[in-house]
Amino acid sequence: MNNADDLTLIGKVLILGDKRAFDSLTLKYQGFVRRFLRNLCCGDSMLADDLAQETFIKAYLNLHQFKGIANFSTWLTRIAYNIFYDYRNNKKENFEPLEVAAFEIYQTKMPTENYDFEQLLKVLNPQERAAILLFYMEDFPIKKIAKAMHISAGTVKSLIFRAKKKLGNILEKEKI
Amino acid sequence: MKQKNENNDLNVLFKINKMEILDEGFSQKVSQKIPSTNNSYTTTYIIWTIALIILVGVVFKFFNFTENFPLLLSRISENFIAALILFFKNPNIYITTFLALLTAGGFWAFKKTTF
After folding, report:
1. pLDDT tens for each residue of B64-112
2. B14 touching A, CB under 8 A?
3. DSSP secondary structure string, B62-83?
4. C-alpha to C-alpha distance for A166 and A168, rounded to whole angstroms
5. A46 CA to centre of own chain
6. pLDDT tens across A28-64, in order?
7. Which of A109, A127, B78, B106 could serve as B49's disulfide partner, Cβ 3.0–4.6 Å?
């Protein structure tokens, strides 16, 4: 399904109030939104699914504000990120990044395959985590990440750079 | 060179941890939590037919088809069923044309807004 199909479905929801069309959009994007939030929440799947539900409900209620300039996926990512950010602001203690030194590696034989990925993500702050997840995992271009996170492309680049440096240090240490 | 290797490592790291998440009833849960709106096929049809009633009224008024038309129009606008009763009790060319236009226009509008 491409962007034109998304727009058709959105049109059906807006003009005809067709909930089934929105179900199709939910079905299409649930995997991506839930994965993104699950990684942002460092593996807390219950919390991630709650936030994902909130994302889709908010998207449905604000669908009339979607102008169709950006892709639906970008718009949805922005909602998901904002919801996560609001949640994180209320529960700061759960999302403080770990110091790189405090990070424990459990397996070392084949670093890229055996890392506890969710633990690894904890060394990043939420902004760095979001930027690097969208860049490496979801293959979002820098501009799209900037739109989704509502920051400049330069800031996205520097977030990715910092995140790469932190993760790179860990990977490097484990190789030696 | 070091940076290139680092990039490759991260690329592999993120790609191998990219899990596919199955729906497992998630969409259904979202669907159940979405509040129902007033929008529906019927609402769209009613909005379009009201718009058409106004349009036909203006056209009839403009061409002065009948002196009694404003009265008829107000009756129709107030209650569509009243117009139908009027038609069945005393069918005439104006009401017949109006109902035909209304039905055709409504049907056209309905088809236009249905993807």
Report:
1. 555 555 555 555 555 555 555 555 556 565 666 666 676 666 666 666 5
2. yes
3. HHT--TTHHHHHHHHHH-HHHH
4. 5
5. 16
6. 999 999 999 999 998 888 999 999 999 999 999 988 8
7. B106
